[in-house]
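Exercise 7. Predict the structure of YjiS-like domain-containing protein from Aliiroseovarius sediminilitoris.
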Amino acid sequence: MTYATEILSAPVSIADRLAARIAVWKEQMHQRAQYRETVRELNALSDRELNDLGISRASIRFLARMAVNDQ
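Solution. The predicted structure, encoded as tokens:
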């Protein structure tokens, strides 16, 4: 036997859309701050310390992006 259900969604108000957009902006700002902090901390390390961690200076920005996006 087959059942059919109808899902009605309430129209999204402008206030709801604005609140959602602000939440997205806040999250993006937080991610950007984490990215900058990670890059700053890794750049503060010496070449020897980076080598001990298996990180090259050229890959710092890539690793920072990956660290922020994986959270």
